[in-house]
Predict the structure.
Amino acid sequence: MMFGGGLRGLFAGVFLLASAAIFPFAATAATLDFESVGTPGAQVEVPDGYGDLNWTNFYVLDGAERYPQYPGNGYDNGASSGQYVAFNGFANPASLSSSSTFDFISASLTAAFNEGLKLDIAGYRNGAQLYATTVTLSTALYATLLFNWSGIDQLTFKSYGGVPVFGVSGHQFALDDLTVVQTPIPPALPLLATGLVGLGFAARRRREARKAG
């Protein structure tokens, strides 16, 4: 599309770019249930790229199949859909991240072995903490929790405490039906910046021309 009329045309172009930046394409929520990454009879790492995220120390297993000696364990009870759940390997802290920003909407969480397990969850952007909360989890039933944390690029999880109820103590937690929305920078924003620079340059040239005349 061509714009005429000097600055008037440039103003019109910048306005269209600004509109595109303010009203970007609608993002779609994705619910990650880990069914496509689970392997029967084994526990496997969640691969980077699953859900367009990078995963650190998250594994997937079938709780009912993996620990039959602990009937009613939190892995089994934590499957809010399907049969597989993710968990923090070796009860250590775990995290997920993205090269662009995303919104953390909700998740289903369960304590694997310790009743009353504490779970610290924090959301970051560019290394700065924007959100933090601590939840208390049960082994008997998953809790589907709503977060609505927007504009983050990393989530961290750290579990501790609780009371063993299966004769074994463990600070693992189960994660299922993680819902996120990818919110990358709208493509129009760099174009908008370029347009604004051009607008300022054109205005300066026009002032200089008036002084010369």
